Amino acid sequence: MISCYVIGELHTVESLCVYISDYSLTQLKGYSIQRPENFDAVYSIRPDIVFIDVALLGLNNSWLERIKQFSSIVFISENTEMAFEAFENSVFDYLISPVTFNRFVKSINKFDHLTQLAHAVHGTKKQQVVDSFFIKADSKGIKELLIKCDQLIYIEAMQNYVVLHMENNKRFSCHNSMKEMEDSLPNTNFSRIHKSYIINDEKITAIEGNMVMLNGYEENKLLVGNTYRKAFFEKKAQKMIKKKSGVQIFSYSRLASAIITFGAILINAQALGEFNLQF
């Protein structure tokens, strides 16, 4: 099922909610008839598609970047004036209001087709490149910080929060679980090596037994836990340069060449009377 969330004016929300409920491929996860003051509901649900009425877009639309980390966006407008901005924001589709059921189905079918294609190619239903993400940096959830993955060294679990260890000795904390952090990060670049550690594979500078050194510092030397050891070292083995076997490959062409050469020597030797060979 393709999960959907709708943000728009009343008439837009009403029609789309009916379409989503009636179509076999879609499931309604929530809606808002006005622009939310915060988007915690959308962030927590993480729907596959978020339908957004462009009439509710404001001057500051930085929240779109965060939604795009886990959802595809479909703009809805009464005209094509926002088409260029839709292109700039990499939205999945652009629907003209009033949206017909056939046009809605066409958009959903296209999403379903591309999702299945991605699943066939990458082995995952939905895979997006995540190079940054937001965290709530205070207990009230008011202040949000943008964390860039290439500057994140590792994540450490504490009692009821996690600490993000960054480049230049910076540290940030947020009230998320390790499971939430692990699910949000791309597993191609990050590895869970311990119940208390998630590391950035690109920051590994050395591995000594079951210890991993990050960024070349002894204080960033972390233990690989028993539970995660097998998966981590199998992943590491994929990047190991394989040693070529020292066994020589038998060459039939070389053998044939040697036989021909030896035969020529025998014939020449017989002609010179050095050997008396009977064939």
Automatic annotation (TrEMBL):
A Pfam entry, by short name: LytTR
Membrane-crossing residue ranges in chain numbering: 249-269
GO MF annotation, one: DNA binding
Alphabetical list of InterPro entries matching this protein: CheY-like_superfamily, LytR-like, LytTR_DNA-bd_dom
Domain of life: Bacteria
Residue ranges occupied by any HTH LytTR-type domain in the UniProt entry: 146-238
Database matches in PROSITE patterns: HTH_LYTTR
UniProt keyword terms in alphabetical order: Membrane, Transmembrane, Transmembrane helix
Gene3D superfamilies attached to this UniProt entry: LytTr DNA-binding domain
Statement: the UniProt record of this protein carries the keyword RNA-binding: no
Protein name: HTH LytTR-type domain-containing protein
Organism classification: Bacteria, Pseudomonadati, Bacteroidota, Sphingobacteriia, Sphingobacteriales
